[in-house]
Amino acid sequence: MNAPMTPFAKPWIANPDGYRVPYEVFTDQVYYDQEQEHIFRGETWSFVGLDAELPNNGDFKSTAIGDTPVIVTRDQNGQLHVFKNLCMHRGALLVRESRGNAKSFDCVYHQWSFDLTGVLRGVPMRRGVRGEGGMPPAFDMANFGLDALRVEVMNGLIFASFSKTVEPLADYLGEGIVANIQRIFNRPIRIMGDYRQYIHGNWKLYAENVRDPYHGSLLHLFHSTFGLYRATQKGFTYMDPSNRHSLLKATASAAPTSASEDQEVYKDVRSYNTEFHLKDASILVGRPEFDDRASLVINAIFPNLLIQQIANCLAVRQSVTHASNAFEIVWTLFGYADDDEEMQMIRMKQSNLVGPAGLISMEDGEAIEIVQDAVIRDGKKTSVLAMGGVHSGSVDHMITEGPIIGFWENYARYLNLGADLKK
Amino acid sequence: MSSPSLLSSQSTASRKDKSSAMVPDDFMWQGYSALETQWRVERLLSRYVACIDDDNLEEWPSFFTQDACSYEIITRENVERGLPLTLVFCTSQGMLADRIVSLREANIYPQRWYRHIVSNVLIQAVAEDHLEVQSHYVVLQTRRNGQTSIFSAGKYKDRIVLQADELRFAEKRVVVDTHSIDTLLVSPI
Ligand code: FES
Ligand SMILES: [Fe+2]
Fold first, then answer.
1. Does the structure show a pLDDT above 60 at A5?
2. What is the position in ligand 1's atom list of the atom closest to the CA of A87?
3. Which among B73, B183, B187 is the top mutation candidate for probing chain A, defined by the most A β-carbons within 10 Å of its own β-carbon?
4. Is the pLDDT of residue A330 over 80?
5. Considering only CB atoms, which chain A residues are within 8 Å of B186?
6. Which of A78, A252, A274, B22 has the largest count of CB atoms under 10 Å?
7. Which sequence spans correspond to the domains of chain B?
8. Residue A163 CB: number of other CB atoms within 10 A?
9. How confident is the model at residue A358 (pLDDT cuts 50, 70, 90)?
10. Coil vs helix vs strand at A122
11. How confident is the model at residue B15 (pLDDT cuts 50, 70, 90)?
């Protein structure tokens, strides 16, 4: 009689030997629809762009939160706004270009015109034509402004939320994550450009991938093939108090305590090799530019952002969902406005390491797709997350799957999956 | 204070190609007639894509000049925004060779066959020591399941020189229309 209407009948399991997530979360449309409503359009802040992308009044870009199309714009007073990209008349995409500069947003369908603050300013034929037709007296343009999202900008990162009640951005992120944003976005940036990578897989497989500090030395073999990487490099895994976000940080300078320790760590690894050497190692030339000397910072921010610093390669990566089995990663690489020409060249050369053609990162796309392909008919089977002990939270190493567990605990909370998975 | 960008020399106007500019029908270049030059350029491009499609990638760097060369893959989106970011940025034969070793030994990627179709080979400028040539390309990909689709469409902007009796690329700039990369880009274009 009183059976719950939830489609998520099977509770997730956190046993001492592993935290288990059913594969249907990656394939089932029900989850996809629920997460659009409760995560992307729910009590979260989503990244929508960098204010350096919109330097001038009137600049706009179109992007998406989850799969909801949105417009980001800087109005004539310099104020940033985010709107649903949805005409208030009969639902056409208001902005069809990916970027541009405008004085107003004019829908092509019937030319309703909105100013850059979202107010409806013009409706052609409102009074009819030669006394015929026209809008009824009850029609009030003031009631048809664009759907505006809440907007907060932190050190040039623009976030938006559909929620009226979500906590302020700084509280949502927590002090440790805010500190990393301040660390990387410490002065004006210069945008180098974008990559777009279309992946035939579920966006959450990427959320797991960027919260997985231990796959790096196993999946990505560029460094080990050229005898460059050390699994023994020192790092830590930080999570904010809510365990939504994570920060994986490693320092390159930590040498192995001995060559034999390095060999021991790598004895099960496919290709730890000293046979190959780079013919042109200028790709790895860099300059230390942060006081903490970190060589790798991977900062995942729930639900759709990743901030990376890999040597001098700085980027934000935004996930845009298309379907339960398709999403896109929009990479924006940047340097600083005060980079000299040599530094600009260093960043250009290091960009070979990342992105869809990145020598150290291209594998992630393949890793996601082979999971998606394999689990298609095994929705009730589960993965097992156990590395590092079965818990989320900060630890002083990187051999852990804790950040992934933190992601799923929050996912379950947002979708109201019912079980208290920590028990 | 903002220092000059890598692109400072590149004005907005120069982002648009003047593809319609004509070189005369009867030029001579390095002792070759216009017709023979065209034929040699087309043969270079055919050999280049055959090298990639037949998986002789170890030979791929030798299509470029030895001392200094440039190979870039950049999206048309970034070009039209006046932004420098490339998908691949190589400034020496060594960097080209390193990419191939990485592809063979290190990188993990789906097994696919690639097939390049090159056409519209247009010599756009004839200088004493080099040619500027634009051509169009399409790369088809065939997945493990035997299905073929278009992986990438775009154009080559090449600076071609004569070195040791062979035409070689001093610069090859691949401008990709298909800016949404399907999963990943591992093989050269
Ligand atoms: S749908 Fe936009 S004006 Fe009619
Ligand atoms: Fe990875």
1. no
2. 2
3. B183
4. yes
5. 357, 362
6. A252
7. 30-176
8. 13
9. very high
10. strand
11. low
Q: Decide: A107 in ligand 1 pocket, CB within 6 A.
A: yes
What per-residue confidence (pLDDT) applies to A2? Answer: 41
- What pLDDT does A265 receive? 61
Whether residue A266 has pLDDT greater than 70:
no
CB A83, CB A70: distance < 8 Å? yes
Indicate yes or no: CB of A222 within 8 angstroms of CB of B102: yes
pTM reported for the whole predicted model: 0.92
**Shortest-distance Cα residue to atom 1 of ligand 1:** A90
Instruction: Read off the pLDDT of residues A189-239 as tens digits, 9 standing for 90 and up.
Output: 999 999 999 999 999 999 999 999 999 889 998 988 887 755 556 899 999
Residue A87 beta carbon below 6 angstroms from any ligand 1 atom: yes
Whether the Cβ atoms of residue A164 and residue A43 lie closer than 8 Å to each other: no
B107, two tokens: 């990188």
More confident residue, A101 or A275: A101
The structural architecture, per CATH, of the domain B30-176 is: Roll (3.10)
State the closest ligand 1 atom to the C-alpha of A111, by its place in the atom list counted from 1.
Answer: 3
| CB proximity under 8 Å: A 108-167 to B | none
CATH number of A174-421: 3.90.380.10
All CATH 2.102.10.10 domain ranges in chain A, comma separated = 46-152
Instruction: Write out pLDDT tens, residues A137-163.
Output: 999 999 999 999 999 999 999 999 999
Q: How many whole angstroms separate alpha carbon A154 and alpha carbon A158?
A: 7
Q: Check A356 against B73: CB less than 8 A apart.
A: no
- pLDDT attached to residue B10: 44
Q: Of B151, B143, B180, B137, nearest to B46 (Cα)?
A: B137
Question: Is A373 part of the contact surface with chain B (CB cutoff 8 Å)?
Answer: no
How high is the mean pLDDT of chain A?
91
CB A392 within 8 A of CB A400: no
Report whether residue A110 contacts ligand 1, using a CB cutoff of 6 Å.
yes
Give the residues across from A195 on adjacent strands.
A331
Residue A118 corresponds to which tokens in the numbers above? 């979202």
Question: CATH 3.90.380.10 region(s) of chain A?
Answer: 174-421
**DSSP collapsed to 3 states, chain B:** CCCCCCCCCCCHHHHCCCCCCCCCCCCEECCEEHHHHHHHHHHHHHHHHHHHHCCCHHHHHHHECCCCCEEEEEEHHHHHCCCCCCCEEECCHHHHHHHHHHHHHHCCCCCCEEEEEEEEEEEEEECCCCEEEEEEEEEEEECCCCCEEEEEEEEEEEEEEEECCEEEEEEEEEEECCCEEECCCCCCC
Mean pLDDT for B2-24 is: 55
Report the 10 Å Cβ neighbour count for A343: 17
> Is A200 an 8 Å CB contact of chain B?
yes
Compute the average pLDDT of residues A20-34: 95
